[in-house]
Each structure stands twice: as structure tokens, then as C-alpha cells.
Amino acid sequence: MVRLFIPHDLAPGAELALDPGQSRYLVAVMRLGVGDDVHLFNGRDGEWRATISAVTKRAVAVRAAASTRPQAMGPDLDLVVALVKRARLETIVEKACELGVRRVQPVVTERTNAERTRVERLTAIATEAAEQTGRLDVPAILEPVKLEKLIGGWEAGRRLLFCDEAGDAEPILEALKDETVGPWAILIGPEGGFSPSERRALRALDYATPASLGPRILRADTAAITALALWQAALGDWRASATGP
Amino acid sequence: MVRLFIPHDLAPGAELALDPGQSRYLVAVMRLGVGDDVHLFNGRDGEWRATISAVTKRAVAVRAAASTRPQAMGPDLDLVVALVKRARLETIVEKACELGVRRVQPVVTERTNAERTRVERLTAIATEAAEQTGRLDVPAILEPVKLEKLIGGWEAGRRLLFCDEAGDAEPILEALKDETVGPWAILIGPEGGFSPSERRALRALDYATPASLGPRILRADTAAITALALWQAALGDWRASATGP
Question: Integer distance in angstroms from the first to the last C-alpha of chain A?
Fold first, then answer.
């Protein structure tokens, strides 16, 4: 069934108008009409079954019928990723959403060729991915910051998995073996790597765990996707003991 | 340094002409000329440093100088992947190469919307990815076969990691915990999933290990990339004890 993220509150009988894009999608692409059901979620009230109650030229209206899943969140995991080329950054955002991150924080590093980040466009990609992947929230896409500033204001208690391609870090599963569940972030550098001084600064952080992603050179998107999956499998909701999204 | 895959044998002093695409790339894109060095590999003779010896309108000639790395192969890992939309299949081939697979075997399943597979184009993508990722061979892209036929002629002794999204399989790290190193394949289904009869057949194979990739619905490319990374981390060359590509 079609799943849509909406800003409105969800409660039994709540009637709401979908935005023009969603309205067009339901009618023109999915060929739905009055009486057909969709799923709605807003990141707060869980997932609801709703029925299309009106179709006008301007908008589709739906009425919430019943809750189908209670609100739940994935693990408290952020992805901190150096700004890379637009297409790869968009892939990273789509995949980070499928892999259950809560927030994506783009960072500017010494070797970043900073293109302008279109947070709005990345948020649209994250929203569509959330609709497809079945999660009940949309990851937040934050405004880019400089790596130095991010480290300077680091949230107390959040661990950092620092994917260090320079080669002498432990393999990722080894590195995560003795770590514990809790707030985490995964840091992926630019394709040119971190500068020596950035690496030194990152290695010196007491909340950072360096890890290696194998013997081959990885594109930034491959590094981000694989590190997220390994983290979810070792410490997150890909484990048997963890609960769903 | 630029790395190029070539068909020729490599030996000290060997002089060879690069193909038109590679010649154009070196001169027009990388702005290299006579006297500049590149790295060459052919999947048999390791990696060699070579020097550009001539640039004509038709081709760039290079002379092999010295071996820089002996030939080595990654683990004996195949990716068996249902034919998915062209862009996603191309992403899968690029990433499978970065993640060290030896062969990519496209398969036709009941729910596959089979587009024509352009093996030649996928091989070009695999070659470029091999050049970038630093490996010393190019994964083979095989002609598509039907899943039934592939299972019928399965190679004795090769294990199969069957990524089963239907939900009751063990989490992937659990599933791989007691498995051993050796020839393996990873099977990724189409976005519509395997049919019930395909799942029954796959579950019945004594060489197959079903595994779950977490609680969210994954795109085929995400499933392929994450399963390959988890396998490499658990049984392949992302482990501390394993050797490089």
C-alpha cells in the first residue's frame, strides 16, 4: 500500500488535505480514487490507515481510519558525511534513510570541494526513502558545518565511529566488538580522505573509535552504506535482540 | 596515480599501445604526456608502473618499468543478483567490484521485469571500478540465467547466502557466525521479492544460509551492498586475518 509522510496530526477520523505533489502522485501515478486506502505517518503518531475521501482538481483529501503501527524510532544514530558530489550525496541520503539513521550532518573538511548543499532537496529524498522503506519517521538533514566546529561542539555521550581509510585502524567488526549501545555517529570523509591534521585531531578524541573498511579504496557512498550496515548489524536494530523501526 | 586495466601481458620493458578510450583519457582528461607514469594491471601479472613512451593522434604507448604489487585475488565470492532496473544494476556492479566480488551473475526470477542486460556495458563499469578501487583483477559479468537453471547446475562446495526479506531468517551476522571460509555466493532477489515457491526451493537447498538484513525494506542495491560488506567483514578480506586484494 502507498505510504505517505504528512505534517498533520493523526487521530481517528482526522480529515486532511494532501499537498499538491502527493495528490498528483495518488491520482495520476497510482490511479487511486475515493474509497481507496493509503498509509500515513508523521513521525509522531505511528502509522495510520486512511481512506481517500475526496478528489478535487486542487487536492486529495483523506480521512484517518485506524492506527496500524505505534510510533517507534530506530537507534540513535547520526551519519556525519563530508560534502561529496551531488549525485553521491543524494545516494548517501537515500541509503542512510533505508539504513535507519536519525540525522544526516554534512560536514566541510579541508579536502571537501564544497558544492552548495540543497537541504530541501535532500529532505525530499529522505522523505521518499522513508515512505518506501517502511520507517515511521524521516531523518533530519542538517545544514552543513565545518568539521572543526562540529568537533568543538560535540554532544556529550555520543560515540563516533571514524572510518579511517589510512589503513592502520582495526577492521570495523573488531573495532565495534567491545563497544556498547547508545548514541552514536558515523563519520565518512571526502573521497580525497582527511588531511593529516584532521586525522590526528580525530584520533585524539576520546569518544572516537577508528575503524577500517577493508583493503580496497571505497567511494564515499560505498563507505557510508557499508559502515552504516555494519554498525546496525553489530550494535543497532539489525541484531536479533533489537526491535523494529 | 592513474590505474589502467589492459589485456596485454606485463613484463619488464614490455611496450604496448593503449586503446583509444584510455589514450584519450590520459591525454585529454588527465593531461599526461611522454615521461609520465601510470599503473597497469591485467588480472594475471600483478600491478606495474609504466611510463608513457609515445603520444600520437591515434594512441598512447606505454612501457612497463617495474612490478609494484604481485598478483593477488580477493576471496572466492560471487554475487548472484536478480535483474533490476538498469541504473540500480549498474550501481550494484560498481559496488560489487569495490567490495571484492569475483563474478556477478544476473538471474531472472519469477518477479523479475527482465530488461535486456548489456553485459558489455556492465563489464566496462566493473573495469572502471576495479581501476579506482585498487584491485588487481576485474570481476567477470556473466550472461543472465534463470534462477531455476542456476540452482540446477550449482557448483559443488559453493555456499549460498540467501538474503531473505520475508522476515523469519536470522540476522545476517548471526547467520554467518558459524559459517566457514571458502567459495561463497550471495543471492539478492528482485525488489518484488522471491515468489513463495522460489523461497521454498531456496530454503530447501542444503548449501544455502538464509539471512535477514534488518527490519526495514531495502532497495535491491542497498541489499546487495550491505550483504557483501557484512560477508566481507565476517568471512572475507575485511577481517584482520585476511590479506589484501
Answer: 18
